[in-house]
């Protein structure tokens, strides 16, 4: 299937800057198209299979490109400009499912006690309290706020269990950002996010990052903490059926805890997104 207008009009992260250092024509796959990235004295360029030069920008520690000549603006994350924050990126990890599935899984707090046991949740505290979900009409993005969950080890900097407050943001069909209680500073949020590179309708590369206030852990320690969590998620994601995301409510029955997922699916439908979506009764 040819990508729909909403999908095609987005900017996509395709790798970190060091991933392309010295590249002459490094192959990259995006939206079922073959691209190449070249590094000419530190200036990165992206071409499609016909040799056409694509638009690019460097933001948030990654190289971004788009298949559109008139793309939607890339969303703003002002926390990347704040001093004292540490950015740690994990590099691309391939996942055999639609990138839309990865976004939805990221929004799901109900799996914490069972998939991330003794890290992000414990089976003795499985309940997801009610939270608020809203649409920012001006920016066309989703926010889930007042999300609270007991976590025995909320981050690499946490010294013990705590009730953690979350805010989830979905500013892009293939990007999502979590704002969570900072364990060492008051009145600020640590950020964890996914920039997803949709390779095929049912295959993607996930570029994850953390942007935190942490003066104790090494980059390696922070990276291992996040990778451990994501690899636990990857096992679940690759066993979901179908591999593409169903938008028809007849396929999967939501619960109260799925309020953010419901809003996400409705948003995708409202924007007429079709690429990476499973049709009702479609073979897995």
From TrEMBL:
Residue ranges occupied by any Vanillate O-demethylase oxygenase-like C-terminal catalytic domain in the UniProt entry: 96-270
GO molecular function: oxidoreductase activity
Keyword annotations from UniProtKB, A to Z: Oxidoreductase
Pfam families the UniProt entry points to: VanA_C (PF19112)
InterPro entries xref list: Cholesterol_7-desaturase, VanA_C_cat
Signal peptide: none
Identification of the protein by name: Vanillate O-demethylase oxygenase-like C-terminal catalytic domain-containing protein
Lineage summary: Bacteria, Pseudomonadati, Pseudomonadota, Alphaproteobacteria, Acetobacterales
